[in-house]
Specification:
three-stranded mixed β-sheet; binds dinuclear copper ion; Immunoglobulin-like; 25% helix; alpha+beta
């Protein structure tokens, strides 16, 4: 190879390297911009604050005792859903919520890591023992949505399914009049 050819190959290599470096800088800037956008809009986000629970005591006292699980209509018209995951079910196994309403789901795990995924939506969060997972959601379509556990949680994982039932807003308000926590278990 002549000196001139060697020089030429070095030029080509430098040009290719610069091109790839530019592409990766663009990719990194785009990812940072997307993360910032998603975080600002809370569409997908690391939680803004960390709340902890004691998984060995959640059944006994505090926010996640059984009588407090389910859906509740708040005074401002929003709905809060509280749920727990445990090997191998969700409580409540059927979550009832109204359509066209801001919903805050607060959930945790009583044992190992589980996941909540609501099919046909972008709702997908992990339930980690010791922490509260909070997820904002809103449904526009009435109907039943499957809610499989989406984190492998040992041998019963594939049988761990829940359901979300989205009902008409006024029907939900009617049911809520009776007070207590709503669910659709057994419906
Ligand atoms: Cu719970 Cu997989």
């Amino acid at each position: 190879m002549s000196a001139e050819e060697t020089h030429h190959s070095a030029d080509v290599a430098a040009r290719v390297e610069r091109r790839w470096a530019t592409i990766f800088v663009i990719v990194i800037v785009m990812m940072a911009a997307l993360a910032a956008f998603a975080g600002i809009h809370r569409a997908t986000m690391p939680q803004p604050r960390v709340e902890t629970t004691d998984p060995s005591r959640i059944h006994l006292s505090g926010e996640f005792v059984e009588s407090n699980l389910g859906s509740v209509l708040e005074a401002d018209g929003n709905v809060t859903v509280r749920a727990i995951g445990q090997q191998y079910s969700f409580t409540p196994a059927c979550i009832v919520v109204p359509a066209d309403t801001p919903i805050t789901m607060r959930a945790t795990s009583a044992d190992v890591v589980h996941g909540i995924l609501i099919q046909g939506t972008n709702i997908n969060t992990m339930l980690v023992p010791g922490y509260v997972s909070e997820q904002l959601m809103r449904f526009t379509r009435i109907g039943d949505y499957l809610m499989p556990c989406q984190e492998f949680c040992s041998f019963g994982h594939e049988g761990m399914w829940g359901k979300v039932k989205v009902i008409d807003k006024s029907e939900f308000a009617n049911r809520a009049k009776a007070g207590g926590r709503l669910s659709c278990v057994g419906e």
